[in-house]
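Problem statement: downstream parser choked on a complex file, so we are re-checking the raw output for the 0WD run. The parser issue turned out to be on our end (a line-ending mismatch), but while we're here, posting the original submission so the record is complete.
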Amino acid sequence: MGLLTGKKGLVFGIANDHSIAWAITQKLHEEGAEMGFTHLPDKDPERPRMEGRLRKLVEPLGAKMMMPCDVQKDEDLDKVFAAAKEMYGQLDFVVHSVAYAPIEDLKKATHACSRSGFLTSMDISCYSFIAVAHRAQELLVPGGSILTLTYLGGEAVIPGYNIMGVCKAALESSVKYLAFELGAKGIRVNGLSAGPLKTLSSSAVSDFDNMLKLYGQMAPLKRNVTAEEVGKTGLYLLSDLASGVTGECLHVDSGYHVMAAPPSDIKV
Ligand code: 0WD
C-alpha cells in the first residue's frame, strides 16, 4: 500500500514534462494518489497545445479529470472545483504550482515595474493561491493539505528575480495566514521553496544558467537539486508523514539558503 493509496487531489500548473508540478505528480502517483489536472486554456482551439501536452503526460496515469483553467478567472476556478466535487466528492490535497510575470516587467528593475505588470504578476502568482485555497477548503477532508511552490527570492534579494520576488514574499505570507485560518479544520498549508530547475518559466529569469552554476558551488551539498528531489519533498508535505507540519516553507535547495557568504573556492 502506498502513502497516498485511496487519496484524491487536484494539481494546477503542469505546462510540460519539465514542470515542477509534473515531478511532484509522478511521486504522488507512485504512492497511489488519484489526481485531476488543470492546464492553461489554449488560445487556438484548433491547436490545443497546452491540453495536448498535459494529456500525453497524465492520461497514462489514469487521470479522469483534465480541465482548462485560467487562474485569473473566478468562473474557471469555480468550474474546476465544481467538477472536482462531482468527480471525487472530497479531496485530500491540492497542488498550486503556478506563477507568471509579464516578461517586460520581469526584466525591468523592480522600481520600474508597471502597475499593470505588478497586478498581473500578483494576481497569477499570489492571489490565485488564495482563491484556490478558498475553494479547496470546502472539499478538503480534515488532514487534507495544500501545497504551493516558492523561491528564495521571496525572502532575500536575488538579482534578476525582481517583481517575482515581491510576489513570492506575498505568497509565503499567504501560506502562513491560510495555515492559521484553515488549521482549525485540520487542513495543512505549506510552501516548497525549490532551488533553481530548468523549466519553461525559469527560462524567463535572466542569468538563469549562471544561477545554476552559482548554486552548484555555493550550496553546502555542492550541487543543484533535481526535479525528483523536489517531487519527493512535495510527496512528503502532502502525505501523512508531514501531519504535524503547516505554515512552513521548506527549502529543497541543497542547503543554499543557509549561506550568507560564498565559500573561498568559488569560481563563477
Ligand atoms: O527554478 C524553478 N523552476 C523554480 C520554480 C524554483 C522555485 C520555485 N519555482 C516555482 C515557480 O515560481 C512556480 O510557482 O514553481 C512553480 C512552477 O514553476 P515551473 O514548474 O518552473 O514552471 P512551468 O512549468 O512554466 O509552470 C508554471 C505554470 C505555467 O506555465 P507557462 O510557462 O505556460 O506560463 O503556471 C501556469 C502555466 O501552466 N500558469 C497558469 N495557470 C493558470 N492560469 C497561468 C494562469 N493564468 N499562468 C501561468
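For whoever reads this later: The mean pLDDT is 96.
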